[in-house]
Amino acid sequence: MGEMNQKVLGLQWQKHQAKAEAAALPFGVDLINRANDELEFLEAVDRILFQCSDAVIQNAIRRYEQCWLPLAARNDVIRTKIAPPLDVHWVWHCHMLSPYDYEMDCRQLVGKTIDHAVLPSSEFAPWRRNCLPLWQNSYPSEPFDYDLNISREVHLPTHESRCTYDLNAAVRRQANFFYQVSLPHYRSQTFLETAFSRYKMFLNLKKTNPREFLVPCYDIDIMWHTHQLHPLIYKQDCVEILGKMLNHDDTVTDRNPDSKLALADKNTRTLWNELYGTYFASSGAMYRGMPSHNRLKPLDSRFMSAIERSELLVSIETGAFIGCVMPENVEQLWGPIPLPSLPEGQSNDCIAATHRLRNDSSQLLLSCRICHSRPLSMSAVQIFHSDEMIAVSHLIGTEQLPTPDLVKWDSKYPSLNFKEGQRAMLIKDTEGDWGVVIGEWKNYRKGVPGDRGRKQVYYSNATKAFHENN
């Protein structure tokens, strides 16, 4: 018994030492504050660029290669405090997230690696104003700012990229990253401090397992991205910690069970637990599925105007729940809801009810379908107008929302406390996430299960005993 206790204590000491080694890793940039700035930049990009046409993206790549990189090479970007227009900045941002390709392409195109720093949102306008005269002097026929709403049909200058890295594909992939880190808790100082600690543990895990392909959770990933966006510091830090620069490969996106990504995720969880004795997955930091941008129909503006101008008398026509099968891989049935795949041969047996909202002329205004799937542990509410799904709400758990301790119990950041019986639903429309609703049972007392063939049994607080209901 004593020998076993010694072995257990030895393992605990090793895990404690591994955490201490991770905590002591050196960094040349304040990643916690810079990560918050990076989130603001991603939000600005998402707000403006997610609807951009292919023509705009291709033009931004041309401007990045032909205009910005040569201009940045002639001027110390950090010292002179200059920044490019947003479309160009976004391409630059995506390029830096493949650090080896970025370094190689920069040296091939302009002879050196162009440095970058993540800026607070308040600094972008001044830095771009500083850049404007330099840009105009160097490229008098090239506008500094472009209309980003240009359609595909508008003719823009053609360009064949000289970069070895596929910038167009990278821009498309990274367009979905912000959605994974867009919920409010990513702005919590406490959550970001924990994310930074976990990023250090991730790098230490890589140091311990240099040949393994490791996959981060999204709290770690936002720190990793922010670190890479300081290219010179990132390389220096990586060399000091790992002996070489750590590459970032975002081309591995297949999430099927036997894919490289899924197997690497499983392996990362195992190695993390072995080294640190803790779970790798973290509340509020897991994959959220794809954003709902343009995957739902926008509500007809005439319909909205009619509602806003008038006082409607409406009635609700309720429907009964009926059994049905709703395959989890058919988006037309579910809408933009991330659903796991069921085992082969298992059907997704559900119950669903449709309620209808009519005006005083019995005209159908909206339909509301409520679906419950026991195999998927999923409930959803779908809103239809003219047979088109315009909004959806569905259950989410701690894969998307943090537990209260991760945001220091700050009610400003939605969190989920299962111990208090809380459940959460995410509401989406065609523009993305609309809101989070969290509910919980109040003054709820667990009932007593009945027995088939016997009269109802109830519990009396007065006598603290069970009685038959005669």
Description:
By secondary structure, this protein is an alpha+beta fold. It contains 15 helices and 10 strands. It has helices at 2-23, 31-49, 54-74, 77-80, 86-96, 99-110, 121-138, 167-174, 177-180, 189-208, 218-228, 231-242, 260-276, 301-309, 331-334; strands spanning 314-317, 322-325, 349-359, 364-373, 378-385, 388-396, 422-429, 432-440, 457-460, 465-468. Strands 1, 2, 3, 4, 5, 6, 7 and 8 form an 8-stranded antiparallel β-sheet that branches. A two-stranded antiparallel ribbon has the order 9-10. The longest helix has 22 residues, at 2-23. The radius of gyration is 27 Å and the shape is globular. Residues 458-470 have low confidence and may be disordered.
Distance between the termini: 58 Å
> Helix proportion of residues, in percent?
40-55%
- Average pLDDT: 90
Oligomer: single chain
Quote the beta fraction. 15-25%
> How many helices in DSSP terms?
15
Uncertain residue segments: 458-470
Shape: globular
Please state the CA-atom Rg, rounded to the nearest Å: 27 Å
- Element string (H = helix, E = strand): HHHHHHHHHHHHHHEEHEEEEEEEE
Largest sheet: 8 strands, antiparallel
Number of β-strand runs:
10
Helix/strand structural class: alpha+beta
Q: Key features?
A:
470 residues; alpha+beta; eight-stranded antiparallel β-sheet; two-stranded antiparallel ribbon; 15 helices; disordered C terminus
Write a short abstract of this structure.
This protein has about 475 residues and is an alpha+beta fold.
How are the SSEs ordered, and which strands pair?
Blueprint: H1 2-23, H2 31-49, H3 54-74, H4 77-80, H5 86-96, H6 99-110, H7 121-138, H8 167-174, H9 177-180, H10 189-208, H11 218-228, H12 231-242, H13 260-276, H14 301-309, E1 314-317, E2 322-325, H15 331-334, E3 349-359, E4 364-373, E5 378-385, E6 388-396, E7 422-429, E8 432-440, E9 457-460, E10 465-468
Antiparallel strand pairs: 1-3, 2-3, 3-4, 4-5, 5-6, 6-7, 7-8, 9-10
Helix pairs in contact: 1-10, 2-10, 2-11, 3-5, 5-8, 10-11
